[in-house]
Amino acid sequence: MQPSPPFETAGAFAPTEARWYQGPQADAAFRHLRLEDPIHWYEAGGFWCITRHADVQGVSQRPRSFSSEHGTQLFEVRGRVPQSVQASAGPGSIIRMDPPGHNRHRKLVIGAFTPKRVAAMEPWLRGIAKESLEAIDPSEARAPLDFVDRVAVPLPMFVIADLLGVPREDHTTFRRWSDRIIEVGGGVVRPESGAAIAELLAYLAAVIRERRRAPKEDLISLLVRAEVEGERLDDLEIQGFCLTLLVAGNETTRNLIAGGALALLQNPGEREKLLANPGLLGNAIEEMLRYVSPLRNFIRCAVEATELGGKRIRAGDYLALFYSSANRDEAVFGPDADGFDITRESAPRHVAFGFGEHFCLGASLARLEARVLFEELLQRWPHFELAGEPVLLASTLINGVEQLPVVLAP
Ligand code: HEM
User: Fold this and answer.
1) How many helices (H) and strands (E) does the chain have?
2) Average pLDDT over every residue of 62-75
3) Which of 56, 278, 309, 352 is deepest in the core (most CB within 10 A)?
């Protein structure tokens, strides 16, 4: 057992408490750990905290030693995971697989997300972005509205809906399923949550059957046809993968957009730079990913005793990879790593999408969504303003904004 530094016993370190992440104390504690005890045993939670960029990358690159099969979220440490939450990850979600099964599965689905395939989605995606912004009429744009609900939510949700072959007339139902499933992923289980998951799975099963009979040019048809060395995905695997996309690609991208907008609002000088030079948007998105880190952490479980940075890790120990801390690592991003700078050259080195074997499959898609959305937004309403206090999401997993009151056309 490692001794706990005094700051922890003083209550300044509470990574299993959602509200703790919302104040400056979290940044200060992670800074302290990166400098003093970068691989830190958190006695109260029963897991190791991996806080430096190099160590987050190092652990992520060793899936045979540090497994994803025993859980990926903090509340799963010590088997605290509710059954309904496990189900929300989908039957055999790729996120929770280890080699060699993971490699096989990833090979079968990766074709759907190649940068080339994603780049070809731009016109379709821009259409969805325009449509969602055009739904805000000029009088609404002059009054306070919630940026999250009206701007950040629709694009990622409708992109996933379209990818999964959900037609427009079913979008309202899809949003209800999507909201329930995302909540369950965050540990909020309502009486109707189980039914929502079952309804969505049944819906997907019907789409999969239909695409097997008459393939189209969409994601599910691609998954139905995908074949590597004679292997194919069965219906259950495709259903599970679709559910994973819904959970992994929706709230994360929403909060990249909402958190990125908040960063621009709180750093007007950076917004001015961007408006003066729209060519900076690509790097600005990387800086948003770094600065926001929509996913705060994922966990791994050590399958064998090993050593890491001089610490003895026992078989069965859990390790939390704090992407949010790694993305503020002074050794990579410089002494002003806590600031938001859209011209930061090192921004693309962030680990917001993870690293190594489980590197986010949707990274190109999320980047494209954010770029297109900010292009369309800043063209229409370059001077949107805050119109009240943002409400931050209380979550140990997602760095999110629940409500962001703005006036788009002040
Ligand atoms: C800003 C948005 C996003 C962020 C911050 C994000 C973050 C991440 C991270 C950190 C991982 C690594 C998990 C690990 O190492 O265990 C991951 C994996 C994954 N992400 Fe994303 N993601 C985003 C958007 C998306 C989108 C849009 C999709 C798809 C539509 C997606 C699909 C996936 C999948 C399928 C995996 C699992 C890959 C594997 O296990 O091999 N993500 N994501």
Assistant:
1) 19, 12
2) 91
3) 56
